[in-house]
Amino acid sequence: MTPAKTPAKTAAKKVTPAKATAKKAVSKKAVSKNEVAKNEVAKNEVAKEAVSKKAVSATEASKEAGVRTAAEKAAPARPVAPAPPRNESHTALVRRARRINRELAEVYPYAHPELDFENPFQLVVATVLSAQTTDLRVNQTTPALFARYPTPEDLAGANPEEVEEILRPTGFFRAKTKSVIGLSKALRDDFGGEVPGRLEDLVKLPGVGRKTAFVVLGNAFGRPGITVDTHFQRLVRRWQWTAESEPDKIEAAVGGLFPKSDWTMLSHHVIFHGRRICHARKPACGACPIAPLCPAYGEGETDPEKAKKLLKYEKGGFPGQRLNPPQAYLDAGGIPAPPLGAG
Asked: Rounded to two decimals, what is the model's pTM?
């Protein structure tokens, strides 16, 4: 005869499946937590690896940029196609840019470098001195400098204190004295007292960068180059020829829009327009001959009468920046600048 089951044993057996289920749930939860933890560790490892790769990539890019900068100083920037502004196609951009240059050529047929010079040596020195000052102030200062030191050999052996006193009106005269004496010594010692006609040689001279080199190449040697000064940078960005902000990239982008034969005169046209009409603070939009082609029209004064009052140099009847300007400039109504100290 089978013994009768006690209430206690029955209860125990009834509880056992519930406990097993609970234990199973706890076990699954623990496994789940472990998997989450493992996933977090894996994610952290991936993130660390990504950060590491990014750091390595940034370092490599930095090294590459440093090498590229050193190399590009001595080699012409390659013309590249700039990204079309807004929805303008590259072809439309080229046409608009070239039309602007043609219009400016009609407005400024007498456009020229606004530094007085008689030879390549005078031009390279004057261009170095033009940093952080006006061409007018340089033109008023260089007659005394070149009268006393007419050749590279003369300036190379000059007393720095005497040169500083002459260059004082141009500002930063100590640094400029060091540069012009240094470049004169380099011309004397390395180039037989002659200004070289190659970009890679010019940029080796103290105080001479790409902008100065292209001014000299284009105007003393007749070799095409784009002069990216502050006026040029401002205008080509206003016209949306390029969105670049670094001079060498602007040079490459704009160079891709024009044939090389146009580069030197293009620079003169743009710089003349920037000085006379398309000013940095108050562009005279209402007196601008290329207003219909300009995406930035309206940034300045649009009323024609008010805009006329903003015009400068020959456009406004004021003296120009050169003491000895070209005859074509004088024929167009330009007035020579007064010498230093003239009332």
From this structure: 0.75
